[in-house]
């Protein structure tokens, strides 16, 4: 007899005797949080947030949001910049009954070590985190292209397990070297709202990101202008005045962290 049918008969027998069936999954412990937030628990705090689909990122004074797109105009990442420090954020699908941060930390530490970096586990404001160094491309200076050679930079990896999602943040630059410089980016991470959605997704698959409508329209117009300029005998139309979008799209994604 198949195991599934046998199990159903056992459960039915227990119910007839008034005995509740054994849970199929261990109940997940849910603790109160002060952020990051799930969409269902997002506070009505009046804080402006940029809607990127699965992530709503706070607009905090002193920080700059950059949305990274690939040549197909698909959003592949989001980065908050404060001075010379960066907070790169990503959200992933997670199981319903358990978190994945414990496993991801081990994978990140192992990957960083294999790439010439070094990460150790410490207790941080969001629970266990990783701190140390990773190999990364330095920030380009104004008017300069990013250098091709990577250098060792201070880094912190933050992680929060939510209901069916996992949020990861990577802080690099001065904010990763000392807590006194990390305050604005830590506060930005705390105010993120994750929108998981109801669609089934493989565990660790990145939740999809989208551009705000204004930024998407701007990029589409720029792409159309480039295509028109490439046609022989045609001149591109004069650029019309535009309102800066809430996020600054880039055509090249930022340096990727060690993969999970």
Task: Explain how this protein is built.
The chain is of the alpha+beta class and 260 residues long. 22% of the residues lie in helices and 28% in strands. It has five helices and twelve strands. An eight-stranded mixed beta sheet has the order 7-8-9-10-6-5-4-12, with helices on both faces. Strands 1-11-3-2 form a four-stranded mixed beta sheet. The chain is globular. Residues 1-14, 21-30 and 240-256 have low confidence and may be disordered.
Short description:
Strand 7 (118-124) and strand 8 (127-136) form a beta hairpin.
Parts with pLDDT < 50 across at least 5 consecutive residues: 1-14, 21-30, 240-256
Query: How many beta-strand runs?
Result: 12
| Biggest sheet, spatial arrangement of strands | 7-8-9-10-6-5-4-12
Which geometry do the CA atoms define? globular
% residues in beta strands: 25-35%
CATH topology of the largest domain: Protein Transport Mog1p, Chain A
State the CATH class of the largest domain.
Answer: Alpha Beta
Q: State the helix count.
A: 5
Averaged pLDDT, please? 79
User: Between the first and last Cα atoms, what is the distance in angstroms?
Assistant: 40 Å
Secondary structure class reads: alpha+beta
* Radius of gyration, taken over Cα atoms and rounded to an integer in Å: 22 Å
């Amino acid at each position: 007899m198949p195991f599934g049918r046998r199990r159903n008969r056992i459960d039915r027998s227990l119910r007839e005797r008034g005995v509740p069936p054994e849970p199929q999954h261990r109940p997940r412990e849910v603790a109160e949080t002060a952020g990051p937030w799930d969409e269902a628990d997002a506070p009505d705090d009046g804080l402006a947030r940029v809607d990127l689909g699965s992530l709503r990122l706070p607009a905090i004074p002193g920080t700059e949001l950059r949305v990274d797109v690939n040549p197909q105009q698909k959003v592949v990442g989001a980065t908050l910049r404060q001075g010379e420090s960066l907070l790169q954020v990503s959200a992933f699908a997670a199981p319903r009954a358990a978190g994945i941060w414990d496993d991801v930390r081990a994978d990140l530490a192992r990957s960083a070590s294999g790439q010439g970096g070094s990460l150790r586990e410490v207790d941080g404001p969001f629970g266990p985190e990783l701190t140390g160094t990773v190999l990364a491309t330095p920030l380009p200076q104004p008017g300069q292209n990013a250098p091709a050679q990577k250098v060792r930079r201070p880094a912190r990896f933050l992680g929060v397990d939510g209901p069916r999602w996992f949020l990861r943040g990577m802080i690099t630059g001065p904010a990763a070297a000392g807590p006194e410089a990390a305050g604005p980016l830590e506060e930005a991470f705390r105010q993120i709202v994750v929108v998981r959605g109801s669609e089934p997704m493989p565990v660790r698959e990145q939740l999809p990101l989208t551009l705000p409508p204004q930024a998407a329209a701007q990029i589409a117009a720029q792409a159309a202008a480039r295509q028109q300029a490439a046609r022989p005998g045609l001149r591109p139309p004069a650029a019309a005045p535009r309102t800066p979008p809430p996020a600054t799209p880039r055509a090249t994604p930022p340096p990727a962290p060690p993969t999970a």
